[in-house]
Amino acid sequence: MSDQTIRRLYTIIAALAVVYGLLLFWQYRQTLPETPVLVSTAGLSRTADRLIITSGGQNATLDRRKGKWFIGRKAVGSIKIGTFLSAMDNFAIARVVSSKSAGNKDYGLDGNANSLKVYQNKKLVRALYFGAMATANTYFVKTDSGPTIYEAQGDLIFEVGQPVSGWARPERPLK
Description:
The chain is 29% helix and 32% strand. It is of the alpha+beta class. It has a 9-stranded antiparallel beta sheet with strand order 4-3-2-1-6-7-8-9-5.
């Protein structure tokens, strides 16, 4: 091989090493939260006695009575509420996106955001507001405790985003 070919080969290897290093840095940065995150819904599925879900501007109030969930006087299907409570347990914050109060609209967290309010003993213990999708697997979320906007993962956004009318529908048995 000629000296020129060897130099080109070294240049290509160096460029690939730089690109690989940048990818590793970006991946590390995406998984590293800026501040400790203390937002969790794990365990609330077992202790909550009321859930208020706002989706598409409509509210659904679900109450737990004697171990079963109801919307008004109608029982909520066990599969539907089981899926929802499982999504609550699996909700996880990936990182802090912003600590500023301005820019909520940029993240889909304006006044029309879907929300979940969790109550224990008639006391609000957690409120989550769901915004736009951040990536294919994550979305923006905000709590009632301040202006911080987080990037979260899990299926909770999809469960909260279901039409409110779906909570009152009876479930069909599986065939």
